Every structure is written in structure tokens, then in C-alpha cells.
Amino acid sequence: QKKSKKSSETLTFKRPEGMHREVYALLYSDKKDAPPLLPSDTTQGYRTVKAKLGSKKVRPWKWMPFTNPARKDGAMFYHWRRAAEEGKDYPFARFNKTVQVPVYSEQEYQMYLHDDAWTKAETDHLFDLARRFDLRFVVIHDRYDHQQFKKRSVEDLKERYYHICAKLANIRAAPGTDLKIPVFDAGHERRRKEQLERLYNRTPEQVAEEEYLIQELRKIETRKKEREKRTQDLQKLITAADTTTEQRRAERKAPKKKLPQKKETEKPAVPETAGIKFPDFKSAGVTLRSQRMKLPSSVGQKKIKALEQMLMELGVDLNPMPTEEIVQMFNELRSDLVLLYELKQAFANCEYELQMLRHRYEALAKAGSIGPLSAEGAHPDGQAGLGIEEGKGDAKDQIIDVVGA
Length: 405
Description:
The protein is mainly alpha-helical. Among the domains are: 61-95, no CATH class; 106-201, Orthogonal Bundle (Arc Repressor Mutant, subunit A), CATH 1.10.10.60; 298-365. The chain contains eleven helices and two strands, in the order H-H-E-E-H-H-H-H-H-H-H-H-H. It has helices at residues 2-11, 21-27, 106-113, 120-132, 137-143, 154-172, 186-200, 204-253, 261-265, 301-314, 324-367, and strands at 61-67, 76-82. Strands 1-2 form a two-stranded antiparallel ribbon. A hairpin with an 8-residue loop joins strand 1 and strand 2. Helix 8 packs antiparallel against helix 11. The radius of gyration is 44 Å and the shape is flat.
């Protein structure tokens, strides 16, 4: 017994230090089995659980006939079923759902449903097929008797059927009731199918042209968004310049007496883009005035270089003596210069866009797609701006765009 215990102890392997238990379990188990491909629970598997065989008798099964209620020919079929279910209905009979097709009398047809394009025999044939094939109009069109009656399309059959259903619902409804009448727009359906046929019959060149136009449209939309953003930034700069000048004038005109705190808080709010926003040093301890002259990190390197160049052109020292008044004036000057630099950049962008639009207009005018501009910047017919010829597509049929690009 001691030898067997020792041999069993030598077979077991210890988990190395630093290795997680889950990783070690992936290597091998105690029985050195291969790791499973899928996560499995070994406690409830076929190895441990045995079949529970009882001494009870097996439920008897019987070969018995059955009929399907969906069939009207009375066909008899046979299958195996439990003996306890003998005499019960066919279990799949509950899935035999049929569409309720309305029935009309001779008097109702003559009074309300008469149509010169349809005979009564043709209408009866249509409703008979609708009952047989559960309003599957593609099948109805396939089974339609085109030799005896006039050749009809699927849209014609649908239009006639739903028109009769709506008429019968209006006739038989009690006064004051809210009706949900089915409406079928045959013209819309025809245009939709025509559009689908055109879409299906496109050539590869037309598909490539459409993709190119979609890409150009996206580029135009992005340019439009950029232009709107630039106009907003320009408006912010203009309002910032106006508010700063008004604020300076008000400070110069105001007396040197201390105003109440309420009036000081009622100053007009200056946008963040107004020049440079210097940080306020309100921390405890000793601070240098020259520290208040340092430009914040939000100002880019390009603006800093342009600012230094403008100060050199004005003959202002880049590092003046940091007295209280000089620090305040120097910071205000640099803030105004940055604001001026931003306004110049916005003006240059607007000039560039205007010149680009002029060149584009001249190219379109040479091509003959637009008319010449009058002195007031409008067309001779009264339309303003760059008027591209419209109305070319009015003669074409209006096709509903079913598949959006």
C-alpha cells in the first residue's frame, strides 16, 4: 500500500509558481487528456450520468388515419400517433389560415360594382382565383384565363379587387363607424416598377457616372459645411472686435471713481476668440509681472511669429520693462494685433473664395449653361445669383425614386 501511494504521488504535477490556475488547466488534466476544443462541464456529461431506465411500460403508438381540414377533397392519410391521441384533431390544422375574400350578390354588383372595362364573368373569375390562392396576385396573374378574358397586368387585377373591397365596406358599414378601407394606388405601383426596371437595366458607364456624381455631391456638402463654419468664425471675430472697441471707449469715458460691484458684473460678454485670453494669476505667494506677459499655450506658433513681426514693424520692444501699466497696455496691444491678424486671414479667405466663384462663373458663361449677369448681379429674367438652366427635366416622366442612392 505504501508503494502504491508513493507511485500515485509521483504522477501528480504541481502548478508552477506565477502561472494562473486557468492557464495551467488548459495544458492537461490529471488524466493527461487533450484540452477540449469548446468549453464543457465535465460534472454533467456522459461519463458520469447513466441512463435512468425505469420499469414502467412504454406509451403505445398506433398507426391511425387522419384528414387535413385544409383539403376539400376528403383525402385520407395515415401516420403514427400515440394511442392516447386517438380521435383528436390534426395538430397542424391551426396553421390553416385563410384570407376572408368578400362575396357580393347580383343586386350589389349591378347597383354599385358595375364597370364598363370589366364584365361580371371576369370579376367572378378574379374573386374565385383570389379565394383559391389567398390573394397571391403573382400566382393569380399566372393562373388568369387570358384567352377567354382580356389580358390584364398584376396592377389591373389588384386595382379591381381593392376597389370592389372598398365599395363593399362602404356599403355594408353601419353609419358612424370608423372604417379602415384598403387603398391601392395602381399608378404609383406602375411607376415604381418602371423605375426598378430602369435601375436594373443601367449600363456600367451609367453606374460609374452615378457613383462619381455622388462623390461630387459629398464634396460639395463638405465644402458648404466648411464655408458655414468660416462665416460663423468670421462673425465671432467681428463681434469680438466691436465689443472690445466699445469696452475700451466705455472705460476711457467712465470716471475713475469706483463703481458698485453689480455694474462691474454687467459688462458685455466677450467671445473666446477675441484676441488673446491671458490667464489670471490669483494664486497665493509671490509672482512676477513678467509672468503675466507670457503668451498662453492656446496661441499657435504661427500666430506668435506673425505677432513678433508686427511688433517689430511697429517698433515695439518684444520684452519691455514690466511695470503695471506697461504690462496691461502690452497685453492689450498684442490681443488687438492677434485679432487683426485673424480678421486679415478671414478677409483673405473670403477674397479667395470670391475669385474662385468668379472663375467658375466665367467658365460656365463660356460653356453657355448660364446667361450673362446684369449690372445688379442678377439675370435679365429677374433671377439672382448663378442661375443654371432649369426646366430641362419637366418634359420627362416623374419617376418615384424607390432605391435611394
